[in-house]
Please model this.
Amino acid sequence: MESKEKLPECLEKEKPKPNWFVVPELLSREVGNNPLFRRRYYGSLHVVERFELMYKLKEHNGCVNALNFNQKGNLLASGSDDLDVVIWDWAIRKKLHVYDSGHKSNVFQTKWLPFDVEYLMATCAHNGEIRLLDVRQGISRQIAMHSEQIHRLAIHMDTPHIIISAGEDAKVLSIDIRERKPTKLLVVQDETSKVRLYSVHSNPLNSNEFCVAGQSHLVRVYDRRKPSAALHTFAPEHLMGDKHITCAVYNYNGTEILASYKDESIYLFDTVSPQLGDYAHRYQGHRNNLTVKGVNFFGPKSEYIISGSDCGNIFVWDKNTEAIVNWMEGDEKAVNCLEPHPRFPILATSGLDYDVKIWVPSCQRPPDMEDLESCVKFNAKYNVIGSSVFSAFSSQMFWLFLASTLQVNKSEDDDDNDDEDDQC
Model:
């Protein structure tokens, strides 16, 4: 008798037990014994298991590559291949403003600068340009330039006037908007060549510390006061000298770094007791082959891991058990951006579709995820072949290929664009 095919490892992980129950939580709040009610709810399994699509925000005419809530959480900024930046009052599904970003190629990042009065936004683009947008006046100006494309910017609450950028030219810049010129902090190199950078992120509790990652297996941590050498480096031992990273981010208090590896898994590293080759957790099931894909934490204490996938789905893992606790269709082609709300259990996502999707925990029951197994198995096979297929593409060649492919798909789909918005 033939043996049954073994389940993928990620599907054998034991799911966590429920950690939030509505009746006792509400009763406790009513008698004044539950001051952390909102935070406990936001970080609960109940929330992430009950996500469903609330609505789509439609205004862009290109892939939406960037999403960012402001500090208050009442506004959401989105940036796109159409070169526009759109400001949304997302709660009432209203477009407030549409700005010409001033960029000449695909907008990859939009970041509110965290001043008390939020009216400035940093943007970056495929051609390496970084601009500052004044949303009160609708004026954008160039503040820095990389020689190759730039995907991410980093800001910090304690230094709202400073922007850190990392580009595919391997340079890391510190941009003080009060000064005329940026400061070059470093050029990231390995033993043989410069390292193309796809990601930069600031430690939430240390404005001087940031991490970068890109076309290398290493996540590198630096202090911007003395950036001549990395403070720490992180990488799984079995990936030494192989793979590269599309996104690396800190958790809520800087004690962990999450990194998404192309054609491989997502890894969690402990920054308190750093040790090269070690990792704390591994998250599997998604697919990261095609685009420069983001990854993020979800929950006020970074309780969950969220990532898009080239299968068009959104994956949610419990951080400690590594179990997939939710899995939902987020895009027809690929999900790249996942932006948690700063205060409430709301999630904004985008990808190769031309819209922004808002997710809320409104489902009555946890998901059945009946097709998850077949999806995970397909993704695992594609991760193996994907690296060989796309390794031959340079970054520039790939974006040209992707743009032409999407243009063909868009023209084929134009006749089907009259469908009503999906709503819960």
Notes: The longest helix spans residues 372-390.
